[in-house]
Amino acid sequence: QVQLVESGGGLAQPGGSLRLSCAASASFSIAVMGWYRQPPGKQRELVARITAGGTATNADSVKGRFIISRDNAQNTVHLQMNRLKPEDTAVYYCYGWAYQDYWGQGTQVTVSS
């Protein structure tokens, strides 16, 4: 059973930065890793994902502000969030796919002055 363990998150001011990290406890490569988020009262949505080959996909709402990266040897994925906005407030979930979906427990990100 693969577990995804998130770290980072918390409170930031508008215009600030936060970094999320996620480590997968797997002995094999996770083909796709990424981040989804669920704002209050809304559905879960894709933020960014990246393949083991390094191909990244970002939601339009975060393009130019968030950067996703991964370390294949460590099975870790990171999300550098810059120029944060109040609408980025959400629970952020780490995601992994290796022939099935894997999800982390979620970490709260709050952007507020």
Main sheet summary: 7 strands, mixed
**Helix share bin:** under 10%
Query: In terms of per-residue confidence, which ranges show pLDDT below 50 for 5 or more consecutive residues?
Result: none
Query: Assembly type of the shown chains?
Result: single chain
* Class of secondary structure makeup: mainly beta
- Give the CA-based shape: globular
Radius of gyration over alpha carbons? 13 Å
End-to-end distance = 40 Å
Order of helices and strands: EEEEEEEEEEE
Proportion in β-strands? over 45%
State mean pLDDT (0 to 100 scale): 96
What is the number of E strands? Answer: 11
Query: How large is the count of helical segments?
Result: 0
Care to describe what's here?
By secondary structure, this protein is an all-beta fold. 0% of the residues lie in helices and 53% in strands. The protein is built from no helices and eleven strands. It has strands at 4-8, 10-12, 18-24, 32-38, 45-51, 56-58, 66-71, 76-81, 90-97, 101-103, 107-111. The strands form two sheets. Strands 2, 4, 5, 6, 9, 10 and 11 form a seven-stranded mixed beta sheet that branches. A four-stranded antiparallel beta sheet has the order 1-3-8-7, with no helix packed on it. A hairpin with a 4-residue loop joins β5 (45-51) and β6. The chain is globular. The mean pLDDT is 96.
